[in-house]
Amino acid sequence: MNRDELSFRRVLTMNLSPAQEQASQDKLAEAQAREWAEENRSAIQAYNEFVETNGCFGDEYRKY
């Protein structure tokens, strides 16, 4: 095993600080949210067009 491989293995096995761990989780959550929005773009657009045309369900009962 050469030095680069050893360094890479150390990076993979080292413990991350809580702040680094949270930052990694936040980045993953953001990426998943973007992916979900992209996968559901057409459904979201269709829903928004429906609401624009027909209003939201229950609008007639709103007091505000």
Describe this structure in words.
73% of the residues lie in helices and 0% in strands. It has 64 residues and is mostly helical. It has one domain. The chain is elongated, with a radius of gyration of 23 Å.
Could you name the key traits of this structure?
3 helices
Secondary structure elements and pairings:
Elements: H1 3-13, H2 18-39, H3 41-54
In short:
By secondary structure, this protein is mainly α. Helix content is about 75%, strand content about 0%. It has helices spanning about 5-15, 20-40, 40-55.
Radius of gyration from CA coordinates: 23 Å
**What percentage of residues falls in helices of 4 or more residues?**
over 70%
Tell me which oligomeric state these chains represent: single chain
Order of helices and strands: HHH
Profile the largest sheet: none
Name the poorly predicted regions.
Answer: none
| Count of helical stretches | 3
Overall average pLDDT: 84
Number of domains: 1
Shape: elongated
| Helix/strand structural class | mainly alpha
Strand content: under 5%
What is the first-to-last residue Cα distance? 69 Å
Record field, number of beta strands: 0
